[in-house]
Design brief:
The structure is a homodimer of 207-residue chains.
Chain A (H helix, E strand, L loop, with lengths): L4 H27 L6 H7 L14 H22 L6 H18 L1 H8 L10 H20 L5 H21 L10 H18 L10
Chain A binds a DNA duplex (18 and 18 nucleotides) through loops.
Amino acid sequence: MTTAGPDRRKVRHEAKRAEILAQAWLLAHRDGLAAISLRDLADSVGLRQPSLYVYFESKLNLYDAMFADGYRQLLTFVAERSYGGDPRRALARFLGDLVQFSSDDIVRHQMLFQRTIPGFEPSAETFALALEFYEVARQMLAAAGVTDQRSIDIFSALANGLAHQQVANEPGGRRWVRLAGRVTEMFLADIDQRRRTSPARKGSRRL
Amino acid sequence: MTTAGPDRRKVRHEAKRAEILAQAWLLAHRDGLAAISLRDLADSVGLRQPSLYVYFESKLNLYDAMFADGYRQLLTFVAERSYGGDPRRALARFLGDLVQFSSDDIVRHQMLFQRTIPGFEPSAETFALALEFYEVARQMLAAAGVTDQRSIDIFSALANGLAHQQVANEPGGRRWVRLAGRVTEMFLADIDQRRRTSPARKGSRRL
DNA sequence: GTCTATATTCGGATAGAC
DNA sequence: GTCTATCCGAATATAGAC
C-alpha cells in the first residue's frame, strides 16, 4: 500500500504533534512550566503561532498532553526495568528508580507530582495514566507484603519526599537517590516491627 | 509625643503594606500563586493599581515579601510551641506540627517549599529566614541524637513528603498529620539500629 | 495545513498632576 | 500617597485567504 494517503497524513500529523510536545518540554526547562509561550513554541518547530491550533485545541490541552506524556514516560521507565527476585530488594530498587526518574527531569517532576499550573487539571483519560502508575506501585508494595492503607500512605510520602528533596536541592544529582536502599530497609523494618507487636502492640511506646 | 509625624506615617505605611500582603495571600488562594494580578490586588485594598508601587517596587518584590512572611509565620508557629521533655517525643510533635502547618495553608506550602513561580528567587535577606528555620530543625534533630548529614537528609525528605501528600491529596485534613508519630518512631528505630550494628554493620543485609 | 491579519484581553510598569 | 492617563509588551485565540 504505497498510496495510503489518509494513513500517511495521520502519521505525519502525529509526528509533528510529537515534535511540538518535545519542544514544549525544552521550553518549559528554559522558561518554566507555567511560562511556556505558544509563540516561542511555534517558532521552535518552524510554524506560526496560529498553526499550533491544528495540533492542540488550546494551551490547557497542550498541558494535558504533556501530563499524559510524562506519565507514559514513567510507565515505560518502570516497565523497562524488571522487579523480579526478592520483593523487598525489588521495592528498594523501585524506590531508587523513582527518585532517579524525578532527578533526571525536574520540570517533568513538577508536572506529574506538583500541581502548580494555574487553571490546569488533567482530563479524565489522562488521569487514568496516573492511576495506572499508582496501581503498579500498589502491586510492588503488595508483593513485599504491604497492603494496609496507612503503610501505603507512608511509602508514597517517602517516595515523594526523597524525589522532592532531590530535585529541589540537587537536580540531576544522586544524593537522595542513594538513600533509597536505607529508607526502604527502614520502612520494611517498621512494617515487621508492627507485625510482631500487633495486635497487642505492647513493648513499644508510641511517640 | 503626640506630634510625631514621621513615626505615624511610617506606622501607617507598614500597616497598609501588611494589609496588601494579607490580601495577596487571599488572591493567591483564589487564582493561584503565579496568577496574582496587581490590578485585582489593588482593587481588593481600595487602591488603584499604580499606587501599589508605593509599597512594593515590583511584583517579584511582592513575592519576596510573601516568602518572608510565610517563613516568619513558620518561625512563630514553632516558637509558640515548646518542644521540651523527651527529645524523641518532641521530634515527633515537631514533625506532626510541620505537616499540620502545611495542611493549614496549601498556597503557603507551595510558596515556601515548592519553587514554581517563574522568575522568582528569594533575596538573600529573605532566604536568611528560611535558613533560620532549618537551623531550628537541625537543633531538634541534634537533641534527639541525630547529627549525621544522611540522617538529616532522610528526615527532611520525611517531613516534606508527608506535608506534600497531605496538601496534594487532602488539603486541610489530617490523614498524613496523624502518621507523624509512627514515622518518627520508624526513623529513630532506624537510627538506633544503625548505631547498634555500625561500624561493623553486620547482621543486616543492605537492600 | 499553513499562512497573514487581527481581535481581545490582560499584564506590569511609568509619567506627572494634585 | 494617591490619582489619571498611558505606555508597551505579551498573551491566547479566531477569521478567512491560499
